[in-house]
């Protein structure tokens, strides 16, 4: 069996008609690859279309401000991708006059572009035979060849990359890379794949050794931490609230939120109101204090679970300059904050 030819033949019949597959423009391909990192196609497609509509070229994206880019990205998560997207657009415009690098090695120099994305762009746009390795590719290769090396180990990453490189169709690397990814997404699915219609079934190790459910192998994930977030939602007589831009290098860098008080554990309303940080924020202010959600809203991220409460603080005047309720929707926010704004219905 010719592994690569079998996959590209399958792809020619079953591939989905997606906008970034109808072009070799590196800007479009790069944009799609960044959006689809950690994101399903059905979720990412509307965002891709929105970005292409708002920023049809890399020059348009570079000319945008970061707040606008983050707002358009809102809801996709992993916001560092959006920040890197904007940074890289500026770099390409300022350093390369808007022209993307044309080789795998040069593409790796771009912020937010790793082995997978560089391989995808180089092969699809410039026919460089560089193999992509993503979750779908790991699964197909592990099952077909019976590889039990953990895919998230140093050894596994090298082993699978070398195997993928040895299999790539050097005459048609772009279609082959897209074929194996599409095959993993649609045919060789993580759970309950229909192996009876699989074109690789005759030689698939996992199928013939009953290992479809156990391959690929992964090392155990890092333990997920629990954090307790308490947001102070100010309601003032002049219809303003406090909204702050996050700084530092956290996951929500440069997004906006209500004043945050993080605690080590869940506190009662009385304990929270009398805690030093809250007392400092509300010092000298006449206020009415109430808890919006008595049950924690648990926001699950890949490495931490945020147990969240929203505390409503009604005041005559704010301790610092605020923004009008009606302007809240203009700021890029984490989904957790955006959902609260939609649900709370500020008295505009």
Summarize the structure.
By secondary structure, the protein is α+β, with helices and mostly antiparallel strands.
Question: What does this molecule look like?
Answer:
By secondary structure, the protein is an alpha+beta fold. The chain has two domains: about 5-210, Hypothetical protein, domain 2 (Endonuclease III, domain 1); about 225-345, Nucleoside Triphosphate Pyrophosphohydrolase. About 40% of the residues lie in helices and about 15% in strands. It contains 15 helices and nine strands. It has helices at about 5-15, 25-35, 40-55, 60-65, 65-75, 80-95, 105, 115-125, 135-145, 155-165, 175-185, 205-210, 270-275, 275-280, 335-345, and strands at about 225-235, 240, 245, 255, 260-265, 285-290, 295-300, 305-315, 325. The strands form three sheets. Strands 1, 5, 6, 7 and 8 form a five-stranded mixed beta sheet that branches. α9 (about 135-145) crosses α11 (about 175-185). The termini are far apart. The model has no long low-confidence stretch (mean pLDDT about 95).
């Amino acid at each position: 069996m010719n592994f690569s030819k079998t996959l590209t033949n399958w792809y020619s019949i079953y591939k989905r008609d997606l906008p970034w597959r109808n072009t070799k423009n590196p800007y479009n391909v790069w944009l799609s690859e960044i959006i689809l990192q950690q994101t399903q196609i059905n979720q990412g497609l509307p965002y891709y279309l929105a970005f292409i509509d708002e920023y049809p070229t890399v020059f348009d994206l570079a000319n945008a401000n970061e707040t606008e880019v983050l707002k358009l990205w809102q809801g996709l998560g992993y916001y560092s991708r959006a920040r890197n997207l904007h940074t890289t657009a500026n770099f390409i415009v300022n350093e390369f006059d808007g022209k993307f690098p044309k080789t795998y090695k040069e593409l790796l120099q771009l912020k937010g572009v790793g082995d997978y994305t560089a391989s995808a762009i180089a092969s699809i746009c410039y026919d460089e035979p560089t193999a992509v390795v993503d979750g779908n590719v790991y699964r197909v290769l592990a099952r077909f060849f019976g590889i039990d090396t953990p895919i998230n180990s140093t050894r596994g990453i090298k082993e699978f990359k070398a195997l993928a490189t040895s299999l790539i169709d050097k005459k048609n690397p772009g279609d082959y890379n897209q074929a194996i990814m599409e095959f993993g997404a649609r045919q060789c699915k993580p759970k309950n794949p229909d192996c009876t219609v699989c074109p690789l079934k005759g030689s698939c190790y996992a199928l013939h050794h009953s290992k479809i459910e156990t391959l690929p192998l992964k090392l155990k994930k890092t333990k997920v931490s629990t954090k307790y977030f308490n947001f102070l939602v100010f309601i003032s007589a002049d219809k303003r609230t406090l909204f702050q831009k996050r700084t530092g290098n956290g996951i929500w860098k440069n997004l906006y939120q209500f004043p945050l008080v993080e605690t080590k554990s869940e506190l009662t309303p009385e304990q929270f109101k009398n805690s030093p940080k809250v007392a400092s924020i509300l010092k000298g202010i006449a206020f009415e204090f109430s808890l919006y959600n008595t049950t924690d809203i648990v926001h699950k991220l890949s490495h931490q679970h945020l147990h969240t409460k929203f505390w409503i603080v009604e005041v005559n005047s704010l301790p610092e300059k605020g923004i009008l309720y009606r302007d809240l929707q203009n700021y890029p926010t984490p989904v957790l904050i955006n959902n609260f704004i939609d649900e709370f219905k500020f008295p505009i």
